[in-house]
Every structure is written in C-alpha cells, then in structure tokens.
Amino acid sequence: MAKLTHPCPCGNTLEFEQCCGQYISGSATAPTAEALMRSRYTAYTLKDEPYVLATWHTSTRPEKLELAADTATKWIGLEVKRHQQQDDTHAIVEFVAKFKINGRAQRMHEISNFVKEDRKWFYMDGEFDESR
Ligand SMILES: [Zn+2]
After folding, report:
1. By residue range, what is the domain housing residue 40?
2. Residue 75 forms part of a structural domain
3. What pLDDT, in 10s, does the model give residues 88-116?
4. How many domains, in total, are found in the chain?
5. Tell me, what CATH number does 106's domain have?
6. CA-CA distance, 6 to 109, in Å (whole number)?
7. How far apart are CA 11 and CA 62, in angstroms?
C-alpha cells in the first residue's frame, strides 16, 4: 500500500495513522458508523478492495468490485453531512463524496445504512439522493 502523507483522505485534520489508517490496518475497530464510513471512503481512495468488502455486511456484500482496474476515478473529497445513531446497532450516515472521472468532476450524495454486529460496524446499503 502506498505510504500516505497527512492529512487523512477522509477530510479529517488528523493524520492518516491516527484516523482511518488504524481501522484499515486492523489495529483498531471503528467506534462509530461515521468512523467506519470515513475509513471506507479512504479505502476507496487507496483502492483497498479487501477492506471495502470486509466492512460490507455479508447480506449485501458484492463478490468483488475490481477497484484496482478502475484507473479513471480519482476521489477528491468527502463531506459527512449527518451521522444519526438510531439505536445501539443501527445508524445512518449521509455524505457527499466528490470524485473525477477522466478529469470530469462528479459528486455522489448518499444516505447509507450501517448495522453493528459483534461490536463491529458494517455498511448495509444506501440510497442515492438524486435531488442535487
Ligand atoms: Zn480519516
């Protein structure tokens, strides 16, 4: 994996190792759905497919993503708009992820559902907000 310079790609001012890096390396468990979501975004920027899949709930997890084959997408920023804990094991995170495909800027606005199992958060599914 490429050695990153700080700050963390997820947009926090913390260094990578103090932010998403500790979850991606497995040395710590993401304490909240938002922390997990941020680390998943960071994993996308690193094309770390095993981490993206491992944090996907088994009931909705795709077989593969082939992130490494995607050389057109360049992630450029994340903005977390809302983190709402619904109960002990369910949370919603709304975010806007910005990226470029072949140099053309795009944005993805998603409202994601997360569930907690065995004290770990997992991404379940998401709805795209098409209104903007
Ligand atoms: Zn981070």
Report:
1. 16-128
2. yes
3. 999 999 999 999 999 999 999 999 999 99
4. 1
5. 3.10.450.50
6. 25
7. 26
Extract the runs of DSSP E, i.e. beta strands, from 10-128: 73-87, 90-101, 104-117, 120-128
Q: What is the pTM of this model?
A: 0.92
| Tokens found for residue 125 | 């599914």
Q: How remote is the CA of residue 31 from the centroid of ligand 1, in Å? A: 13
Per-residue pLDDT reduced to its tens digit, 14-44: 999 999 999 999 999 999 999 999 999 999 9
User: Does any domain span residue 93?
Assistant: yes
CA of 2 to the centre of ligand 1 (A): 15
CA of 4 to the centre of ligand 1 (A): 11
Asked whether residue 24 is assigned to any structural domain, the reply reads yes
Q: Does some domain include residue 5?
A: no
Task: For residue 9, report the distance from its CA to the centre of ligand 1, in Å.
Answer: 6
Confidence (pLDDT) at 86: 96
